[in-house]
Amino acid sequence: MVKYFNCTGSLKATWDQVSQAFWQRYPNPYSNHVLTEDIIFREVTPDNRLLSRRLLTKISRVPRWAEKFFPSHMARKAYIIEDSVVDPQERTMVTFTWNISHARLMSVEERCVYTGSLDNSNLTEVKREAWISSNLYGFSRAVQEFGLARFKSSIVKTMKGFEYVLAKMQGETPTRTLAETATEKARETALAAKEKAKDLASQAQKKQYV
Amino acid sequence: MNSVGESCTELKREYDQCFNRWFAEKFLKGDRGDDPCTEVFKKYQTCVQKAIKEKNIPIDNVEFMGPNKEKPGS
Q: Quick one: a GO cellular component term (chain B) (predicted)?
């Protein structure tokens, strides 16, 4: 069974600006979970479309109840592939993104289409679709629900990150407030501390049995 | 942004800079002249593909634009 989700949003920038910002998205203040980013394939087709494949390493957060399904040494890192086709003639950019690690536990596939809007050239439309599935026997429904909730909240971050990069490229001061930055930092610090505590606890537990 | 191969980050930065300029000034304008980033891209790829092998990241045989194009809902 696959859970399907779609939504539409827009960015206040021309399609040209959005397609340029797409390659300069990381890092941004909303992308602390993205650790590495690489281009691993790139080609211009004879009809002048740009094909690219990007490899990303992200920290993936799992709920407590799901932690037992992850081997502890690989628990928090996930490898993501993002393929894209940029067509400057048609003013469209299509991206397809999915995880290549932990895919049996949960697979999230996302397709985005960025189109320059016809009536307002300073607006770029983003159509987003996602397919979330799990092969975890007995738990697939719960994992899918969790995956969908996490996916939805990640969209907000993605769009905010995009807006931040666009503003920066256009030489504006990004609108993110100091309070927002502080809250986010506090959350990240708390999370890091929690992970550290967990590591220490599991080490202590191991020692007890030695 | 860092590369997955720690030693490739500097090459990646150099390539990104070259690419971003080419993308904005040539590609988007339909200019199909010589790609000035070819050399640095090759160097960067040698480095990053080696790192991917060393880390056993499973990127082989993955079809472009997704493992499965027949999707419900779309």
A: nucleus
Among the partner-chain residues B27, B44, B52, the one whose CB lies closest to the CB of A88 is B27
Kindly report the pTM of this predicted structure: 0.82
Q: Which CATH class is domain A2-175?
A: alpha beta
Residues of A in contact with B58 (CB under 8 A): 79, 100-101
Selecting from A27, A40, A131 the residue whose C-beta is nearest the C-beta of B59 gives A40
| CA distances in angstroms from A12 to A17, A20, A98, A127, listed in the order given | 10, 14, 26, 15
Tens-place pLDDT, residues A33-69: 999 999 999 999 999 999 999 999 998 766 666 666 6
B23, B62, B64 member nearest A100 (Cβ):
B62
Cβ-based neighbours of A157, under 8 Å, separated by 6 or more: A30, A31
The ipTM, to two decimals, is 0.93
CA atoms of A53 and B64, how far apart (whole Å): 8
Tokens of B35: 């790609």
Total beta-carbon pairs less than 8 A apart between chain A and chain B: 101
Contact between A5 and A134 (Cβ < 8 Å): no
Q: Of the candidates A5, A199, A101, A73, which has an alpha carbon nearest to the alpha carbon of residue B59?
A: A101
Q: CA triplet A123, A126, A127: central angle to 5 degrees?
A: 145
> Is A26's CB within 8 Å of B73's CB?
no
